[in-house]
Amino acid sequence: MSFFDSEIVQEEAKQLFQDFQNLMQLGEQYGKFDREGKKIFIEQMEDLLERQRIFMKRLELSDDFMAQMTIKQLQTQLGSFGVSPSQMFDHMNRTLERMKAEAESER
């Protein structure tokens, strides 16, 4: 069976995409959140990032052709911006850490 033929993989990918879209919509209001709201949003983003990292690792470890093609496409797309997938995750984590520090310093 292909990596993407798995119902579990399909559901996980669908949920990741939906959660990402929902958090991006919610994030448009981030500046209006109180301190606790910002902390909750950041925690949700951290959880989503970790789930994405795990999903990507599963893709990388799969010997399925489509999984490998997906990784190659992502590397190519990110490479056009001069970053690798690991650099992208590192950057996102640094951004969340900075947001966390800013939220902590609010009264």
The main β sheet shows up as: none
Radius of gyration: 16 Å
Beta content comes to: under 5%
Please provide the ordered H/E string of secondary-structure elements: HHHH
**Termini gap:** 54 Å
Oligomer: single chain
Helix count from the secondary structure assignment: 4
Structural class designation: mainly alpha
Unreliable runs: none
How many DSSP E strands? Answer: 0
| Form type | elongated
Residue share in helix: over 70%
| Mean pLDDT rating | 94
Could you please describe the fold and organization of this structure?
- InterPro entries: DUF1825 (IPR014954).
- The chain is mainly alpha-helical and 107 residues long.
- It has a domain at 50-107.
- It is 79% helix and 0% strand.
- It has helices at residues 7-27, 35-61, 65-79, 85-105.
- Helix 1 (7-27) runs antiparallel to helix 2 (35-61).
- The protein is elongated, with a radius of gyration of 16 Å.
- 2% of the residues are buried.
